[in-house]
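Bumping with the actual sequence this time:
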Amino acid sequence: MYDMLFQFLQNTGFYMADFSHILMIIIGCIFIYLGIAKHYEPLLLVPIGFGILVGNIPVFTGMGLSIYEDDSVLHYLYFGVTAGIYPPLIFLGIGALTDFSTLLARPVLMLLGAAAQMGIFITFLGALALGFSPNEAASIGIIGGADGPTAIFLSAKLAPNLIGPIAVAAYSYMALIPVIQPPIMKLLTTRRERLIKMGELREISKQEKIFFPIIAFLLCTFIAPAANILLGMLFFGNLLKEAVVTQRLAETARKPIIDTVTILLGLTVGASTQADVFLTRESIGIFLLGAVSFCIATACGLMFAKIMNLFLRQKINPLLGAAGVSAVPDSARVVQMIGHKEDPSNFLLMHAMAPNVSGVIGSALGAGILWSFIK
């Protein structure tokens, strides 16, 4: 009887757990707290946080419980991440949710989204300098675009061993946009610049909205054919939205599909952060590089907006440059929040959406360029 009791205790997680499991479980609880209590990207942080809990319950090898065992249920669900299936489906939903009107009304703001992608390429060079392989450096660099699905997609193609740390880093910094960006925005702009009001946007016709996803897809993919899958799904989703006659399909893309995929992606990415796989020197390096790249991307957008004002007759509020990172719509909301604090009558949200959505396009283009360059 004593032996049976002792054997039972040996089979419990309490007996098998070590410090690394406890540390990861604490991290998972922090993610859940930030999502629920602080409202930091709850649709992402809550599934990822709970996935971290799931992935760090100590289990026996060979029982088909670990996400890294070929016969486990989690492994099959994780296939959508490692094969790059989930990110394009998320892009389909994003496209069906996105209104490109502000971008069409003032196309010059697209340049701010392009400028913010400098964070991707600077981080790529930094990762190479720190000893990461070209494949790994390219995957890490995408964190600078603040685009979780694109980071996961490129990691699945170039550095599958780093999907977990890269995905968690990308989504962590996306969730912390309200914390990270405001100090940089205030540091790099003057109060006078933050008070600049934007003019009225022209009204966009239905024909323009329908033609845009088709023309933009062709132009972007001829520049970077490797971005075909992500941008194809993004612009296809947008065409479904704008065509009116396909509203049923658009509704499915922006609700059931994107919600289901977000749950599966978040949970499995979180579960992939097993302590023995995740707590490595490489992971720490990725988190540090991710923070640097995100700050660089924000700063590049802000500084480029100031440079543009040297040549523009109708000045733009430099805060819009911070929305060039592709975290839609959170970075645009932060721009609105900072501008509104300076002047309650200043409304920048709609204008900020232009560089914000162009940042989504830019990060996918950046991933396509890096993928084709590495290959």
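The tokens above came from a reply further down the thread. The radius of gyration is 22 Å.
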